[in-house]
Specification:
Blueprint lengths: L1 E6 L5 E7 L2 E8 L2 E8 L6 H6 L3 H21 L5
Antiparallel strand pairs: 1-2, 2-3, 3-4
């Protein structure tokens, strides 16, 4: 997997990779991970993929992390 770049953000770690003819955007927060994959054949470059990482999209990703953590806590029997 080829590391392309880290995208600065105060609350979530965002990394972009290229692997197997795909651009992979990996978000990490709260010890959890979300990964989004886009075919290199569908985009001009990783710069086009990065353009889709709007404030609104990142806010949704972060909200999903909170939901994921709540689901995990509940599955493990931790009180919320």
């Amino acid at each position: 997997m080829k590391f392309i770049k880290k995208i600065p953000h105060i609350d979530v770690d965002i990394s972009v990779y290229e692997w197997n003819q795909k651009y992979i955007v990996k978000f990490e927060m709260l010890g959890l991970e979300q990964t989004y994959k886009v075919s290199t054949l569908e985009t001009e470059s990783h710069i086009e993929v990065e353009g889709g990482l709007t404030k609104e999209f990142i806010a949704k990703v972060m909200h999903r992390f909170i939901e994921m953590q709540e689901d995990w806590d509940q599955a493990l029997g931790f009180s919320l």
